[in-house]
Amino acid sequence: MGPRWRSALLASAIAATIAAAALTASPAARAQTSPSSGDGDTGATACPASNAPNELTLVGGTPQTAQLESGFAGALQVELANTNGCPLTTTVTGTTVTFSAPANGASATFAASGSNTLTTGTDATGSASAQMLTANDTPGTYTVTASSAYGSVSFALTNSAAGIPAAITPVGAASLRATTGTRYAEPLAVRVVDANGTPVVGATVTFSLGGAAAGAGAGAAAAGASFDGGTSQATETTDADGVATSPGLRANATSGAFTATATVAHVVEPARFALDNVAAKPHTVAPLGPASATATVAAHYALPLRVVVRNGAGRPVAGATVTFTLGASAAASASAGAGGAGATFTGGATQATATSGPRGIATSPRLSANDDAGTFVATARATGASGLALFHLRNRAGAPATVTAGVGATQSTAIGTRFAIPLADTVSDSHGNRVAGVRVTFTAPSSGPSGHFADGRTRARATTNSSGIAVAPPFIANGATGGYVVTAAAGDVRPTAFALVNTG
Fold first, then answer.
1. Is residue 42 domain-resident?
2. Are residues 300 and 353 in the same domain?
């Protein structure tokens, strides 16, 4: 309690004491000791036949207290009297009495006049009163004076700020965050206290969810929230601790910071809350199981493509639409015959959709390799997910079907010298794809015009490289002149022949 309030209360106490003393001198009190004309009262003086008022006395209404901007309970009452204590005999009806409250500071307003003064007249008994007096919004103790032609009296009144909201402040966190589209973890809460720091019970608090922070672009969707029920404003009443709590609130779909406020009557500065809608982490989609696979050309891949869709918190997302797309080379091969490794889903399409199940898993239809060997990429994209899942697929060439001699299929050299072009052949499958890793056996005649490989033997082996080509070791003509054939065979495939000539 500040000095101003202590002074006000002291003044109120003094005024109360003065009023009590004045009341003891009221006509009713003095009547008990007034002169009497009775025969047994030998020492008394009789009241005069004509007894006019010569003073104004207090009857009631002091001291009293009212909350700021509230009405005082009792009327201010005065009465005309004579100091001799005898009843008035003259006509007193309509005697003017003016009630005056201070013009500034703590004061009150008379309902009958709408101002701080009220002029009225006494009734036939000499009584006058001022009713429906309302305290203003300034706390403190003050004097209301009642004046007449027969003097004046004073009333001690107090405007009390007790129970009147003086401050409103957040309870708990004043800064809150929530992911867009989700509920905030806790509602807004404030405490309302009066000027003495005492909680105010039953005060009406208005919570308002404001717009986006300054700087948001014009026409852009603004970050915000709504209370349960979809409104941006709600009113609640303070409890026994002076606390009011808003309904729950949910962030809208726009990320960004904004302000919420809580206001209460009599308090200019609201309580403010800094709210922030945080953008949700996007869903993710990732391969489930191996992210690479191999199949023989023109055959089914052993397994379909599978992915799992998860939300930003890593939990499975059910009901997400996943689009599986096979690589561009597959599309080119299927639509234009341009060649290139690829595949198609069941039905011949290069794209298919599936929906994720309760565990967030989506599975493509079966897929089949096309006729071209090589590698390509398949992708899976999910609605609401950032990025995509990648699958590295490879069409492996089929079994060897043909062996074809290279450019050195026909050549000659002098006896005892090496043939200029190495013996080489190409191994392909039935679709014309080069087959790597195939062992090819080169065989020269064992007698007559012939030759031998670098190790002196008439037979040599070589393995096809990634291009399906097998190259024999250097071949050297023997000492016999004439033509002959060197064969190249790969498994059960019909061999190819090299027509060679040893010249003299």
1. no
2. yes
Per-residue model confidence (pLDDT) at position 7: 40
Query: Domain check: are 305 and 203 in the same one?
Result: no
Complete DSSP assignment for 353-414: EEE--TTSEEEPPPEEE-S--EEEEEEEEETTBSS-EEEEEEEEP-S--EEEE-GGGEEEEE
pLDDT value at residue 339? 67
Question: What's the total number of domains in the chain?
Answer: 4
**What is the spatial distance between Cα 152 and Cα 142, in angstroms, rounded to a whole number?**
16
pLDDT tens digits, residue range 431-459? 999 999 999 999 999 999 999 999 999 99
d(CA 38, CA 432): 152
Burial of 494: CB neighbours in 10 Å, binned 0-12, 13-18, 19+: exposed
Same domain, 303 and 325: yes
- Examine the pLDDT at 227 and tell me if it is beyond 80: yes
Which pTM value belongs to this model?
0.55
Q: pLDDT of 310-339, one tens digit each?
A: 998 889 999 999 999 998 543 344 444 456
Rg of the chain's alpha carbons, rounded to an integer? 55
Of 108, 53, 34, which Cα lies nearest the Cα of 76?
108
HEC string for 284-301:
EEEECCCCEEEEECCCEC
In a domain, 449, yes or no: yes
Strand partners, 244: 190
Report CA-CA distances (Å) from 94 to 116, 119, 326, 456.
21, 11, 107, 153
H/E stretch holding 332 reads: helix 328-336
Asked which of 334, 367, 396 is the last residue of a domain, the reply is: 396
Decide if 41 is inside a domain.
no
Look up the domain containing 117 and give its range: 3-36+47-160
My answer on whether 224 and 119 are in the same domain is: no
Q: Which residues contact 454 (CB under 8 A, 6 or more apart)?
A: 473, 474, 476
Give the C-alpha separation, 241 to 183, whole Å. 26
| Bridge partners, 461 (sequence order) | 441
Query: Do residues 192 and 264 make contact, with C-beta atoms less than 8 angstroms apart?
Result: yes
Q: 151 lies in a domain?
A: yes
Residues near 39 by Cβ (< 8 Å), separated by ≥ 6? none
pLDDT digits (tens, 9 = 90+) for 400-419: 999 999 999 999 999 999 99
Which of 125, 160, 195 represents a domain boundary (last residue)?
160
pLDDT in tens, 234-245: 999 999 999 999
Coil/strand/helix, residue 464: coil
Give the pLDDT confidence score for residue 44 in this predicted structure: 57
Whether the upstream peptide bond of residue 63 has omega within 30° of 0, thus cis, is yes
For residue 160, how many other CB atoms are within 10 A of its CB?
23
Residue 449 belongs to a domain with what CATH number? Answer: 2.60.40.10
